[in-house]
Amino acid sequence: MNRRYTLEVRQQMAWPWQALILTVSLILGLLISGAILVWAGVPAGELLNEFVFLTLFDAQSLKAVLFQASPLIMVGLAGCLAFRAKFWNLGLEGQMIFGAIGATAITMWEIGSPAMRLPLMIIAAMVCGLLWSVAPVLLRLKLQVNEIVSTLMLNYIAINFLLHLMYGAWKDPKDAFPYSPKYESFELLPDLANGLSLSIPIAIGTALLVLWFVGISRGGLYLRFVDKSPQVARAVGVPVARTILLAVLFSGALAGLAGLMVAAGQEGRLTHSFYVGYGFSGILIAFLARNNPIAATCAALLIATLFVAGRSLQVFYQIPFAMVQLIQAVLVICVASSDFFIRHRIRRVQVGD
Amino acid sequence: MSKQNAIQLKGVNKTFDGFRALAYADFTARWGEVHALLGENGAGKSSLMNIVAGLYGPEGGSLFIDDNPVKLRGPKEAAKLGIGMVHQHFKLVTPFTVAENILLNLGHIQTSGLYRERLRRVSDDIRAMADRIGFDIDPDAPIHQLSIAEQQRVEILKVLLAGAKVLILDEPTAVLTEEEAERLLTTVRGFAREGAAVILVTHKMNDVLRYADQVTIMRGGRTITSLRPDSVSVDELVRLTVGESTTNADQPSANRTPGEPYLRVSDLTSTGGRRALNGLDLTLNRGEIYGIAGVGGNGQSELANALMGIPEPVQGEMEIIGEGYLADLDADRRRVLGIASIPADRYGSALAGPLSIADNFALGDIHSGRYGPFWYLKTRAIEADAAEAVRQFDVQGVRSLKQKAALLSGGNAQKLVIAREFSRPPRLVLAHSPSRGLDVKATEAVRERLRAARDDGAAVLLISEDLDEVMAMADRIGVMSAGRIVAEFSQPADRQAIGQAMVNHV
C-alpha cells in the first residue's frame, strides 16, 4: 500500500466547521502575536494577565474596550456593506472625517436648540459621510472609474481639508493644538445610567439593522446576487446599479456616524485623531468577518481589545503602538490563510499496488 | 494487426464530498479505434476521463497506459505519456493568440530558445499540423475572435502538438452544428486509422452509431458494458444508457391554427463592429413555437441576448404588440407581462451558482410584492413556492432549498430555471438551446414544458443549433443565416430544404 495526500476543492462546508477553522486560525494568530510580544520584552507570564484578565475582566477596562469598539463596529459594518456590493470602498476614513466635520459644523454654527443639537449632529454626520461616497460610486457606475483609486485619493483630500479647518477657520483660539473648540456638554454622546456610552447601543443597534438588511430584505437578496454573480444578476433582472448605489451610500452614512462617535463620543471636539487608521481597521474588520455584520461586531471587539491592551503595554513595557498594528496584520494573515482550508480538503488516499 | 490496449482502468473509485461519482469502473480503449463513452449526464464519463488525463487522483483501482501500470501525479505527467484531453469547457486564455495558447501547453517539450523564436517555431508547427489534418486556423488570431468550433480545433491542435497519442474529447459535438460535428468526427476517425486511440465522451446516440468502433456505456458511476455499436439495435443502446425505455416525442401537428401576432422584430441590426445581426425581421404568434435553425455563429446568441435583455448593442425594433417595445421594459415589467427567458448559458446568465436554490427561485416573482415589500422578504413564502416548483418541475437532487444551485446537474439546473421563469403563467417564452448538454429524460421534460406553454397560448421562440430539436418542436421554422432570417418553413417541413437554406447563405 502506498499512501499520498491529495488536495481537493470543496463544494460547500458546513458553517460550524467554518467557524471552527476560523477560531483555530485566530488562536494561532494570537499565539504568534504572543510570541512576538515575549520576544519584544513582555514577560510571558504577564501576557495572559495583561490581555485577558486586566482588559476583559476589569470593569473599567471592559468599558474602555466597548467604548473603543463602537466606532470600529460602525466602520466595520460600513466595510461589510460596500464589499458585499463588490465596491472596494477604501475611503471609509475620508467618509468618517466628513461625518465628523458635518457634526462639528452643527456645533460651530450652533444650529438648533440644545435638545435638538445631538440628533442634528447625527443626521449631519450620516449625510456628510454619505455625500463623500457619492462621487466615487457614481463615477464607477457611470464611467467605470476604479473606486479603489478614487476612494483612496478622496481620503487624502478629506484629511487635508480637516487639517485646513483645524489650523484655520475652526481652530480653538484658546488651545495651542490644532483642535476645534470643545463641544458643549449637550453635544456629546451621553453616558447611560451605568456609565456606558450611548455609542455602544447605537453600534449594536446598527449591527442588527445591517443584519436585517443583508439577511431578510429584498435589497439583501439583490446584494447577494451582485456579490456572487454580477453577470447573472444583470441578466435575471436584479437592479444592479441601484443595489450598488444603495449599499455604498449606506456604507458612507455608517462611516460618517463612526466619525461622529470619535468626535462626540471620545474626543469631545474635532481633532486629527483619525490618523490612527480607523478607516483601515474597518476594512480589516470587514475582511476578518467575511462581510458578516455579527462577525464584524465580534472582530471589532477583538481589535478594540488589542487597542486598549496595546495602550497599557505602551505604558508598562514601552512597547511601541506599532506593535498593535503588527498584531492586527498577523491576525489578518492567519485568517486569510485559513480560507485555504475552507475551500480545500486534504485527503490521504491509498493507492493500491 | 493485433490491437493493444492504449488505456486500461480497473476498479476505479472516486467520491466528491461524499457523492460517489465512480464505483469500481472498468474501461479499456485500444490503439487504432474510436471508442465512445456513452452515458447520461452525471453518469461519471467526465470523471473517469479526468482520471485518465491526470486531473483527478483515483481512489483505489489502477490505471494502465500501453499495458504498463502508471500513477499520474498531474495532467503534465499524463501529457508526457501521450494523453491529451479536450474538455467540454475549453481551457483557453481568451485574450491570447492561438500560438500563445498552444505554446503555453508545450512546457514539457519546448523549453529552450527565446520566447519570440519559440513562438515562431510553434506557429510553423501549427500551420503544418493544421494543413495535415485539414483545419483552417490562423496561429496569430486571438482566441476571442474565433467561433466555438474554431476554438475546439485550437484545443485539438494543442493536444496533438503536445504529442498526444490518446485523444480524449469530452462532449465535442455538444456545441457544434451538424456539419461541423460531421467534419470533426471524420477528422478524429482519421487519427484512429493512423494508429492513435480516440475516446469520444458523448451522450449523442448518432455520434456513437456513425463514428465509434467500440462503445462503453456508463450509468450511475459504473461501467455497464462495452460492445461494438453495430452488434446491437439503437433501442438496446438507449435502454442500456437510460436504464428504461423512454417515450418518443411526437411531431408537431401540421394543422395548428396560430393566434394573433405577439412579438414583432423588425430590422434588428448590430451596432458593434461586426454585423452579427443584419436587418433581422420576424413575427411570432401566440400559441405557436417558432424555431430558429441555423449554423452556429450566425447571430443566434446576439438575437437571444437582445430579446432577453442581456446587454447587446443593437438597433431596430422589438415590439410586444399592444404592450410596447421590449427594450423599454425593465425587469419587473417583463415579469408582469410574463416574459420567460431561458438563456443558453445557464450559469453565466440564468442561475447564480453560489447562491441557494430558494434565492435563485425567488427572483421569478419578487417584483410583484408576493414575497413582501422591499425591506422584508417573506422567506417562508419563497420556500413554500420553491418547494412546490421543485416538485412540480421534477427538479432532482435537491436535498435542501438552501443548497447551492451550482450543486445541481445540468438538467436539473435547467428545470430550476424553467420553474422560476414559469412561476407566473408565461405569455412569451424565449428559449436558447434549452436542452444543450441534457440527457434524454431531461430534454424531454424541458420540451414538454415548452409545448405546454404553447398549448396554453404562449408565444414560444426556440433558438437552437440542433436541427433535430427544431424539427421536433417548432410549428414554424425560420432559418437564420448571416444575421437574418433567410427562409421560413411551415410544418411538415422538408429537412433537406432547411439544411440547404442553412448552408446556402453562409
Describe the structure.
The complex is a heterodimer of chains A (353) and B (506). In chain A, 72% of the residues lie in helices and 5% in strands. The model of chain A has no long low-confidence stretch (mean pLDDT 87). By secondary structure, chain A is mostly helical. The longest helix of chain A has 30 residues, at 114-143. In chain A, helix 3 packs parallel to helix 7 (199-216) and helix 3 (59-84) packs across helix 11 (278-288). Chain A folds into 2 domains: 1-41 and 320-353, no CATH class; 61-318, ABC transporter involved in vitamin B12 uptake, BtuC, CATH 1.10.3470. Chain A starts with a strand and ends with a strand. With 506 residues, chain B is α/β, with parallel strands linked by helices. Chain B has 3 domains: 5-242, 3-Layer(aba) Sandwich (Rossmann fold); 259-338 and 429-506, Rossmann fold (3-Layer(aba) Sandwich); 351-423, no CATH class. Helix content of chain B is 34%, strand content 24%. Chain B contains 17 helices and 20 strands. Chain B has helices at residues 45-52, 75-80, 98-104, 115-133, 148-161, 178-193, 205-211, 234-242, 300-308, 331-337, 346-349, 357-362, 379-392, 410-421, 440-455, 467-473, 495-504, and strands at 5-16, 19-30, 34-38, 62-65, 68-70, 83-86, 166-170, 197-202, 214-219, 222-227, 261-270, 278-285, 288-293, 314-320, 324-325, 339-342, 428-432, 459-463, 476-481, 484-490. In chain B, a hairpin with a 7-residue loop joins strand 11 (261-270) and strand 12 (278-285). Chain B is globular, with a radius of gyration of 24 Å. Chain A binds chain B through residues 2, 4, 6, 8, 10-12, 213, 216-221, 224-225, 228-229, 231-239, 349-352, and chain B through 16-17, 57-62, 71, 308-311, 330-332, 334-335, 341, 343, 347-355, 359, 362-363, 366-367, 371-377, 379, 403-404, 406-407.
